Amino acid sequence: MDCPETFYHVLSRGNERKDIFWDERDYLRFLDTMGRMVKRFNLGIHAYVLMSLLKVRKYRCPNRDMAIYLLYQLGIYLNKEIGEVFDVGHTAVPGAAKRAQEYVRSDGRLERAVKRIIADI
After folding, report:
1. Cα–Cα distance between 110 and 104 in angstroms, integer?
2. What are the phi and psi torsion angles at 73 (to 5°)?
3. How many other C-beta atoms can be found within 10 angstroms of the C-beta atom of residue 115?
4. C-alpha closest to that of 49 among 77, 13, 25
5. DSSP code of 59?
6. pTM for the whole thing?
7. CB 65, CB 79: distance < 8 Å
8. Distance CA 116, CA 30 (A)
9. 54-112 pLDDT per residue, tens
10. CB 74 within 8 A of CB 118
11. Exposed/middle/buried for residue 60 (C-beta within 10 Å: 0-12, 13-18, 19+)
12. Angle in degrees, 0-180, between the axes of helices 92-106 and 79-86, rounded to the nearest 10
């Protein structure tokens, strides 16, 4: 069913959390295909993440903190699960979420964007 003005959350994961891409060429092929589908079906993509491409840093990173904050705010993931995605301990998750919350509170535009993202998910 096609519903105009509807947001869809699409998730693709390999069996047993295995990688679904063999190498960087596969990522690029996927991005090319996604771009063609956007044009063909007149779609709008608001965000996407190719998770295994993330380069996790052991130091503070505002973008990583924001991603952790969004997952934390959804309330459907355990801190342990969020930590595993970003290769940090589960005890680091609340601190990253708190830092991101401060970024959000200090920037009205960012706050509105985050609220839209959470509402769309």
Report:
1. 6
2. -65, -30
3. 12
4. 13
5. S
6. 0.49
7. no
8. 26
9. 454 555 688 889 999 999 998 999 999 999 998 888 999 999 999 999 999 999 999 99
10. yes
11. exposed
12. 80
